[in-house]
Structure formats: structure tokens, C-alpha cells
Design goal:
alpha+beta; globular; seven-stranded antiparallel beta sheet; 38% strand; 17 strands
């Protein structure tokens, strides 16, 4: 230690001292600390926003309809209209009734059939629920058509899930060129069950990859009537609709069913969840305490 002309003690300068002072200033610089925290906060915010958008994106395709405003969100499917057997649509008791007459040429054109598809939406993995009332007056299939491509005369491919009143069974069938190719497995056909046509029923259905499952529940009692499931990966995505098929060639018969409380919820694909997890990991990493 030495003195100067002012009488104030001074310390001799050395490289070690200068380095120590420099390091201390860098560590204690409030401006640098603020900039670092702001940058880290910005990264965290950006990653959180990205994760939120990834998880929320599939919900944009969710759809529900109680048919109180008609069927404006639906596209009619009536392939036999040009041949004198059109499907008809009405709204009794705020439900959605689809009726189809017998085909005038069942050998050439197939059974009478008709339905409606949700307009402008396509689903891959999803959960579906809808109510069914009536439908037991004729041998017929009543239910939903899922993962459908090119709906039309002789071109519809997809799956049919619903109740077959001709056999009294809940089924999940594969459809090829508008014709049933049979169930997607032995477990995709329920035992014979006797439905009370005075009761309403809810059908819930889930499709995750090749796996598919459907459950029939009595709306009056709340009891599960039966559950079926199966595996088939022929169709991975497409439109969803409701419909009826008259399974009889007896002249004068009509198939009819009333639907209600339709709801479909898309399920995010595994890759979407993986990206979200990676993003959350990045948030945790960017927010970790920094060594001083």
C-alpha cells in the first residue's frame, strides 16, 4: 500500500487484481442480469405458446349438434334419389329423423339407404357419441358411418357402427364400395340383445389408430347394454355421418330412425403430444437456475 499527494492510501495494480475486479463487475452488472432474464423469459413464453397451440389445435375440429336449428351443418347422402328412392329428413321433437324407402331395384342398386355427413370435416382419431330413438320398426341398420371417403353410389368406403335390428346386435362393420364387408372381428359383434323400442339409446364410439370400440347404453336406465371392439387399419381417416339402411326386399317397407345429441371430439395424435412434451422440457431447461 502506498500514499499519493492527497494522502489517500492506494493499492498497487496487478493483473490478478484487475481480473478479479472485472469478473466481479460482470457478475454484479444489473443491466446484463436484466437482459439475461428478459431473454430467458422470452424463450419460455415462446415455447409455452407453441405448446399451447400444439395441444389446442385438434380441438378446432370438435363438433356437436342437437339439431334444434335443423341440419345446416350437414350434407345429405341419398344415393338412390336419381332412381326414385330418396331419403327424407325431418325434425320431430327437436331430433333428426332420417327415413329411407325400399330400393326399386335392390338387386342392381342395393338396399334402400340414406344419411347425412358433417360438412367439411375429416377425422382420424376421435371419440363419437349420439342418441338413437325408434328404429325398430323394420329390419334395418341404424348408426354412424366413420372414416368415410368418397360417399356416393357404389363408392363409399369406411366403417359402419351401430345397431342391426335385423340380427339385434351392436356391430362395427367395414364398408367397401358401399357394401358391408362384414365385421372387423369376432369381438366387433355383440350377443343378441332385445332393445325396448320405447327407450332411447346412446352409442359411443372411439377410434384410435386401428383400434375401435363401441358401447350401447340405455338412456332410461343408464345401464350399459353391450360393448364391442375390434381392430382394422384399412381406413385411417375421413368423414363422419349418421344413417340408416333398410335390410329387406319386402315391398312397401321404410327404414327410419331419429338421432340426437351428436358429438365428436378429435383425439391428438401421439406425435402432437410428443412435441408438447419436448416443448415443456425446453421450458424447464430454460428456466433452470444459472450458476453464478
Amino acid at each position: 500500500m502506498t500514499g499519493d499527494d492527497t494522502g489517500i492510501a492506494t493499492f498497487p495494480s496487478s493483473p490478478a487484481v484487475e481480473m478479479s475486479v472485472s469478473v466481479f463487475l460482470r457478475r454484479s452488472d444489473p443491466v446484463s442480469a436484466i437482459k439475461t432474464n428478459m431473454k430467458r423469459s422470452s424463450i419460455t413464453t415462446q415455447v409455452l405458446l407453441a405448446c399451447t397451440s400444439l395441444v389446442a389445435l385438434p380441438a378446432l375440429a370438435d363438433f356437436s349438434d342437437n339439431f334444434q336449428s335443423g341440419d345446416n351443418a350437414w350434407t345429405h347422402y341419398s344415393p338412390l334419389t336419381p332412381f326414385g328412392s330418396p331419403a327424407t329428413y325431418s325434425f320431430p321433437n327437436l331430433g333428426y329423423q332420417i327415413s329411407v324407402p325400399q330400393s326399386l331395384a335392390p338387386t342392381q342398386l342395393g338396399d334402400g339407404r340414406g344419411g347425412s355427413f358433417v360438412t367439411g370435416q375429416s377425422y382420424s382419431d376421435f371419440s363419437l357419441s349420439f342418441d338413437v330413438f325408434g328404429g325398430g320398426g323394420s329390419p334395418q341398420f341404424t348408426g354412424a358411418f366413420t372414416r368415410v371417403t368418397t360417399p356416393g353410389l357404389g363408392t363409399l368406403n369406411g366403417y359402419a357402427v351401430g345397431f342391426d335390428y335385423a340380427t339385434d346386435q351392436l356391430v362395427i362393420n367395414k364398408v367397401v364400395n358401399e357394401a358391408s364387408a362384414g365385421s372387423i372381428g369376432a369381438t366387433a359383434v355383440s350377443p343378441v340383445v332385445a332393445l325396448n323400442t320405447a327407450d332411447g339409446y346412446t352409442i359411443t364410439y372411439t377410434a384410435l389408430g386401428a383400434f375401435q370400440q363401441a358401447t350401447l347404453t340405455d338412456k332410461t336406465t343408464g345401464n350399459v347394454v353391450t360393448t364391442v371392439y375390434g381392430t382394422d387399419g384399412s381406413y385411417t381417416g375421413g368423414q363422419i355421418g349418421l344413417g340408416v339402411v333398410l335390410e329387406s326386399t319386402t315391398p312397401g317397407l321404410t327404414a327410419s330412425a331419429t338421432f340426437g345429441n351428436f358429438s365428436v371430439t378429435s383425439v391428438p395424435e401421439p406425435s402432437t403430444w410428443a412435441l408438447a412434451v419436448i416443448g415443456l422440457g425446453a421450458v424447464a431447461w430454460s428456466s433452470r437456475p444459472q450458476r453464478r
